[in-house]
Amino acid sequence: MREVSIIGIGITKFxxxxxxxxxxxxxxxxxxxxxxxGITSKDIDALYIGNMAAGSTLQQEHVSALMADYCGLxxxxxxxxxxxxxxxxxxxxxxxxYMAIAGGFIDIAVVGGAEKMTDVSDSESSYTVSMGSDEQWxxxxxxxxxxxxxxxxxxxxxxxxxxxxxxxxxxEKNHFHASMNPMAQFPFAISAEAVSNSGMVSSxxxxxxxxxxxxxxxxxxxxxxxxxxxxxxxxxKIIGSGQASDTLSLHHRKHLNQMPAIRMAAKRAFKSxxxxxxxxxxxxxxxxxxxxxxxxxEEIGIFKRxxxxxxxxxxxTKLGGKIPINTSGGLKARGHAPGATGIAQVVExxxxxxGEAGDRQVKNAKIGMVxxxxxxxxxxxxxxxxGE
Amino acid sequence: xxxxxxxxxxxxxxxxxxxxxxxxxTYHYPRRSFNPEAGRESIGSMExxxxxxxxxxVSSTVVHQAQTGYEMFGPYCIAIIKLDEGPQITTQxxxxxxxxxxxxxxxKSVFRKLGEDSESGIxxxxxxxxxxxxxxxxxxxxxxxxxxx
Lengths: 388, 149
What we know:
Radius of gyration of chain B: 16 Å
CATH superfamily of the largest domain in chain A: Thiolase/Chalcone synthase
Largest sheet of chain A: 9 strands, mixed
Distance between the termini of chain A: 20 Å
Number of helices of chain B: 2
Number of domains of chain B: 2
Distance between the termini of chain B: 19 Å
Helix content of chain A: 25-40%
Structural class of chain B: mainly beta
Shape of chain A: globular
CATH topology of the largest domain in chain A: Peroxisomal Thiolase, Chain A, domain 1
Radius of gyration of chain A: 19 Å
Shape of chain B: globular
Strand content of chain A: 15-25%
Number of strands of chain B: 8
Oligomer: heterodimer
Number of helices of chain A: 14
């Protein structure tokens, strides 16, 4: 197996981008990433696209060919592949490209993720997101995506005594980080009280516990490490990669307050590089709801089960704390454009490991992790990145 | 939902028909022709089984921002319940104040309208659950027409 490095990154601002189409967003980030990498289109061997919902929100499938065409790669008949795993589409696209390069099939791949969630009404975009759970036996029974996470929260509160204050601390911290990220959808701080007093969505989850449904795009350039120096002096290595799945429905799981797919994906990623949780300097976590960040940190092994929420409240996961989590602002405040999210998370870690994260820079960041999951964690993808 | 997609699952939805695996002696809902725990051996060993429709609340939530098609219910209760035979399902708990539902409460199934495709589209019927303790209070206001299953 060959080593794989990230030599270029690009990201758009996340938000309600009514003046921009899916193809425009894809082109913008794709160009930014290849310019950053110092390559030309002739150097690209393959394109991987993370996209969850273009069929539902735009009545457009075949997004791989669409992106290749509008990025000017159709004339060279580039292999283009769309990857879909609900909100884990982006992370999984990264893993497909990683495996193709590590396996020696190609040398350079561009991985892009793009999503348009605000061209449709709120109720349509919410229904689209809930398609990542079981449409027949969850959504059609009246369960919203938020309500499934609300039941996880209820279960976590009942078993470990997790409190409202602790949930609110997750959003407060992520908004604080986003206030230093110009690409964030909500680049401003909010108080824990504001979270606790926001409108009820599905008890006990309130509006400010929930990530938005955003438009946005992100792209990275992956290159075989042995050839990376030719293009980029300083590249970031992908040292570990892991993926796992679980039952599609939450109700088919033994424990409602656990996400075993994240545990297994992290375990496999750690195993692939011989690292452990205590080696990590920072993590981007898939905080689609506040409870997800709490459970994910317990599954990865950063905190013992039932202890993550207290540690977050104490500030251990804030910039300057023991292990900063979601310095980008996370899904909650950077924004959540499903197919782009997993790649935007990688972009953040690369910026941090390069030392280019500005005011939100984590000091001496050497090793970072990206955790991206889909549905109620029926798919989880974890990558571990190391700077030079 | 398209007519055939709903129609294929009619008895599962109307009568709580699931599967019993003769190899592991376990129950499954919805119906499966393959038991993931028993693997290939289970093919041909799964029998249809009608659940008794009794169980208890595992976890619940009051939904304030309704799922598409459920807007008319206003804040409503969604729960994961464990059927007495073992499997868990996600369902709406009806005919009670949604705020009083708690883990451990006993529930039983009722036949209810789930929704409709449009004013002229097909009506969807299926199973919801009510709390045992308040089940005798009063008949639901909704008038449920007789239909052939």
